[in-house]
Amino acid sequence: MFGYIIVNQSEMKFKEFDVYHSYYCGLCQVLKKKYGRAGQLSLSYDMTFLLMLLTGLYDPETETGECKCIAHPFEKHKTRTNVFTEYMADMNVLFTYYKCEDDWMDEKKLHKLLYGKILEGKVGKAKEQYLEKFRTISLLLHDMADREKSGKADIDTMAGLFGRVMSQIVVYKEDEWSQNLSRFGFFLGKFIYLMDAYEDVEEDIKKGTYNPLKKKYHNPDFEEECKTILMMMMSECCREFEQLPILENVEILRNILYSGVWCRYEIVHEKRRKKEQEKTSAKSS
User: Fold this and answer.
1) For the segment 196-222, what is each residue's pLDDT rounded down to a tens digit?
2) For strand 63-67 and strand 77-81, is the pairing parallel, antiparallel, or unpaired?
3) What is the distance between the alpha carbons of residues 18 and 128, in angstroms, rounded to a whole number?
4) pTM for the full predicted model
5) How many domains does the chain have?
6) Which residues, in sequence order, are CB contacts of 119 under 8 Å at separation 6+?
7) Which of 53, 142, 168, 212 could form a disulfide with 155, with the two C-beta atoms 3.0–4.6 Å apart?
8) Range of the structural domain that residue 28 is part of
């Protein structure tokens, strides 16, 4: 479900991308250190964005370094790590662990079962440290799974549940910014869920698997309606973001929120548009 909160590299300065990539590499290294190779597999751009968001808001002491990795064994990459790198690594693995469990229960994906079992032996300390978050996220994901099985849950309900999951992840502590962060996470989570449903709707129709957009897919205004809803969610998300006193790397964060999040949408939308054009051309000929 992750992978939508990314940078638009074509509209970013080289220096800015290097900074962004250093946080990404730092998170990768912390995942490896705390959870091994299995932890590294859970690495996501979405969590990198949240790491930079919390770093910009709270301005913690950040260490810089260099590393090599399997993906780039012959060159060193800069890393940036701080207390939020540790936090996002824990949240990343805890969420991935529960998603594996739900995917196995829902679709009996064997690789998810095996991956979940590997992570299960590694998340003990994180469970204890964030027990209330863990319980809340667990209950919300189970509720989502139950509603998916019923096949009756509407798009707003399902997106709202995932929004509450993201809200739990984004709020690091209860303070003067927790309400803004909670609302920010809620709308960001709704956007992610809706984008995932939008991208997968054709495949889910073929497979007969749950997707809350399936009933709307053949409506003539499907594309317009989806874009309008997505824009509403991201508009609310950006409104909360702009109320946070973030100065460090704010242009990188804005690149992601105002441009990067639409990259996957444009790819999917254009692919469907061309597909419809080909169908129309075939019929007319």
Assistant:
1) 999 999 999 998 888 999 989 989 999
2) antiparallel
3) 35
4) 0.91
5) 1
6) 35, 38, 39, 42, 93, 96, 97, 100
7) 212
8) 9-276
